[in-house]
Amino acid sequence: MFPHVQSFHDAVTGTVSHIVHAGAGSTCAVIDPVLDYDTASGRPSTASLDRILAFIGEQHLVVGWILETHAHADHLSGAVELKRRRGGTIATSARIADVRSLFSTTFDLADEHGFDCLFGPEEAFTIGTMTAHAIPTPGHTPADTAYLIGDALFVGDTLFMPDLGTARCDFPGGDAKTLYASVRRLLALPESTRVFVCHDYPPAGRDVRFETTIAEQRQHNIHVRDGISESEFVAMRTARDLTLKVPALLFPAMQVNLRGGRLPASDDNGRRYMRIPIDESCFAADPS
Ligand SMILES: [Fe+2]
């Protein structure tokens, strides 16, 4: 089975959303839709979603599934707004509960998780006439999931394009050794498998790319190509992660994405707020 894949790159966050379908008029899955969000004004917008909605309309697609590969830290999910306009079942890994518990002392996440469906390991499901599998890929976060739909593999942040390597493992619950095992498992799939990534940050001189193959990854991925050992990967990943900044949208993204794409509940005054926890560690030491 060779599904059609239409991809949409959000230049602000570097996120790539994908629509997987079996042709005009078929049932589709939308993977990792983006809700644009301006932190300074607290204003969401739907410019990214509008491009997805336009394609769905042009192709007369029926939205069967809205699939999240993980709880993204760099953008807000557009799943709820997409569902409101076109329907669909919002789904991710059942291990999202692990990520929610890691953030539960930071944010009030006592309400329902907001997803319509939580996949167990290797769970199979259908998208119209297409069969899909949710493959656990922990490491970047505990709840990362790849989706294998026909010959198309949607890897989330488990792999980037070969010249960019892999995603960071320093978020709560992340683990480089675990990511290495997840990657090697994906790289054992047939070499012709098409691989669609969730992000691209192209270096100067190359265009945005978001499709590669298992063969390309095994030959050329700068972090995990064949021949790179687990210990080499863990040492590289750990050192590199120490140099990375906190993502600009981390706190708004977590407050929305751990609720399945829903905004935080209203305060008593009827307004919704994003909360930013203050890191007070600089006050702990007294130099005198
Ligand atoms: Fe991510």
Automatic annotation (TrEMBL):
SUPFAM superfamilies: Metallo-hydrolase/oxidoreductase. It comes from the Bacteria. CDD domains: POD-like_MBL-fold. SMART domains: Lactamase_B. Gene3D superfamilies: Ribonuclease Z/Hydroxyacylglutathione hydrolase-like. Keywords: Metal-binding. This is MBL fold metallo-hydrolase.
